[in-house]
Amino acid sequence: MRASTTPLLALVVTFVLGQAALAQGTVIRTVTVRASTTGAPGMMGGPALPTLSDVVVVGKVVELEPDTVTAAPYRGAPKEQLVTYKVAHLKIEDRVRGASGVTQVRVGFPAEAPSLLAPGTETGRTGRAITGTVFVGSQRAGLGLAPGLEGCFYLTKHPTADFYLLVGVPVQKKDPGYAKQVDRLKQVARVLDDPVEALRSKDLNERFEAAQVILQRYRTPRGSNLREPVPDEENKLIVALLAELPWVPADGKRVRPDGRMVPHREVLWYSINPGEFGFKRPEVPKRQPGDPPVDVNKLMDEATTKFLKESGDKIKLKRFVQK
User: Fold this and answer.
1) Are 74 and 160 in contact (CB under 8 A)?
2) Contact, 261 vs 254, CB < 8 A?
3) How far is 165 from 107, CA to CA, in rounded Å?
4) Which of 147, 318, 169, 307 has its CA nearest to residue 242?
5) Helix, strand, coil: what percent of the chain each, to 5?
6) Which of 10, 63, 154, 250 could form a disulfide with 167, with the two C-beta atoms 3.0–4.6 Å apart?
7) Rounded to 5 degrees, what are φ and ψ at 35?
8) Distance between CA 282 and CA 76 in Å, rounded?
9) Among candidates 247, 311, 309, which has minimal Cα distance to 279?
């Protein structure tokens, strides 16, 4: 995977109203969403939308179905939580990930959701604020689609209905740096399609960024709380990378001028859920008057290095199963 200075998109969400309902990890809120085309530092600086998506495609909304569809937002939802959706037909021009063998997909969105595309409206650098329903826990954005909207769409299969949902804000063709952003998404897709090849790269930066993408994907619930073991070779390569990295960079600078993360263990450590394998965070010694500050990073480097050396072969990572 070649390195890129183009960061993933940021989805900035500001909560403005309570009205929340918990549903298998999904929080439904009325919020103000800023449809932003500005990036966040590093591959994983933003919501890492490709890793949360089943399908990523470049395409154009060609029409809306005349009738609405009512469906449960999650399996087992009570009747009072049923959602009414409008459904858009998205014509596929290029496949970044998934959607093999089809030319169109159906994409649903809450019927009352505000349209992302308003004729003559420019989002600008900081984006346009839109208030609507957002499924925060699963990153499903309750934004409306309209015929003529073109760009790159992140989609996930609706848990109970025969259509997809948006995962975050689409990258519109009119957005600055659109082509570079799509190219970056394709790089991420290649990592997800062949994790072992990406983790075997001779370039440390590429292995590190690949591990970020893979672990983000694996730790994201896929419609259930069921998990399965990560394939042995992937598991081995990720654990080896952890052992290779320092806890933090020697100079303490975690982010480079181009916005990409400097490879270090701290970024990946809690993505593997180390407590599940017996790791315990070291206790910080009590300071006496006149003592210098405790170097917590040094403590963590020593503790995690020792743990990986003694118990690395016992670390068997798991990933959520799609259901």
Assistant:
1) yes
2) yes
3) 6
4) 307
5) 25, 25, 45
6) 154
7) -75, 95
8) 42
9) 311
Distance CA 219, CA 217 (A): 6
| pLDDT at residue 29, as a whole number | 38
C-alpha to C-alpha distance for 272 and 219, rounded to whole angstroms: 8
The identity of residue 162, as a single letter, is: D
pLDDT of residue 203: 96
- Which candidate, 142, 119, 120, places its Cα nearest to that of 131? 142
Domain 12-190 sits in CATH at 2.40.50.120
Could you say which DSSP state residue 46 is in?
A: S
Q: Tokens in use for 37?
A: 């085309």
Q: Which string of DSSP letters, residue by residue, matches 105-173?
A: EEEEEETTPPBS--TT---TTT-EEEEEEEETTTTB---B--TT-EEEEEEEE-SSSSSEEEBS--EET
Which residue in this structure is represented by tokens 């993933």? 8
Residue ranges of the chain that CATH labels 2.40.50.120: 12-190
Lowest mean pLDDT: which of 124-133, 226-235, 249-258, 313-322? 124-133
Cα–Cα distance for residue pair 143/39, rounded to 1 Å: 20
Query: Tell me: the pLDDT tens digits for 133-180?
Result: 334 333 344 688 999 999 999 898 898 999 999 887 888 998 888 888
Name which of 270, 260, 271 is nearest 205 in CA terms.
Answer: 260
Determine how many CB atoms are found less than 10 A away from the CB of residue 74.
20
Q: For the chain, report the end-to-end CA distance as a whole number of angstroms.
A: 29
Q: Three-class SS of residue 320?
A: strand
For residue 96, the one-letter residue type is V
The residue among 234, 256, 257, 254 whose CA lies nearest residue 246 is: 254
**Position of tokens 């009414």?**
84
Distance CA 219, CA 269 (A): 12
Rounded to whole angstroms, the Cα distance separating 116 from 62 reads 15
The backbone torsions φ and ψ at residue 52, rounded to the nearest 5 degrees and listed phi first, read -100, 0
Residue found by looking up tokens 């015929």 in the block: 147
